[in-house]
Q: What sequence folds into this?
């Protein structure tokens, strides 16, 4: 299933079920009874996520689920994506099964097969998406843990972390602030240069 096909399916679903379908009732007199439609959309999009064959396909569906407020379903899609093939190609080599080599009786050589894993940017995006979902689900510890994994994978867009609405519920928690102090350059700037007085034996 290609990423373009997943995208077309998501667009089709959202065109059939408008944004109002994802909200149950309103305090301003909007009619209630949207649950059947919302459940139908959730089921169809979750099925598409389950059929994803690559990280990108699962990510596309997960982002749409996150956008429409289906946070647990989005989390499931992103977790699945982290286990699927990405765009990083590698060669997996293993011993060939066979008889002795024709030269010297040594064991046969090795054969290789192409495998695909997540590259650094896919890992960064995957962990960051998980952090956003956990934040939306009211799980700050899990959110910060995923955010830490994103930074350890090379993610360095700390400005986005400070302004992303998806992370709003986590900001201000001790875990979040401690992590930002580790990765945000403005906290580490005074310590990034040596004390000039120590160069002359003075403190």
A:
């Amino acid at each position: 299933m290609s990423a373009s096909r997943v995208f077309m399916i998501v667009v089709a679903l959202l065109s059939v079920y408008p944004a109002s379908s994802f909200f149950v009732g309103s305090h301003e007199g909007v009619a209630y009874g949207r649950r059947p439609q919302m459940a139908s959309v959730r089921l169809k999009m979750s099925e598409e996520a389950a059929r994803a064959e690559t990280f990108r396909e699962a990510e596309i569906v997960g982002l749409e689920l996150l956008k429409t407020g289906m946070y647990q379903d989005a989390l499931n899609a992103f977790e699945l994506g982290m286990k699927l093939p990405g765009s990083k190609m590698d060669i997996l080599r293993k011993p060939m099964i066979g008889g002795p080599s024709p030269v010297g009786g040594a064991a046969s050589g090795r054969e290789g097969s192409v495998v695909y894993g997540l590259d650094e940017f896919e890992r960064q995006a995957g962990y960051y998406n998980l952090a956003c979902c956990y934040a939306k689900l009211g799980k700050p510890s899990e959110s910060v843990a995923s955010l830490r994994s994103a930074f350890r994978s090379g993610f360095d867009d700390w400005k986005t972390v400070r302004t992303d609405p998806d992370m709003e519920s986590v900001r201000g928690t001790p875990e979040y602030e401690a992590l930002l102090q580790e990765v945000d350059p403005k906290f580490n700037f005074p310590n990034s240069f040596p004390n000039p007085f120590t160069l002359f034996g003075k403190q």
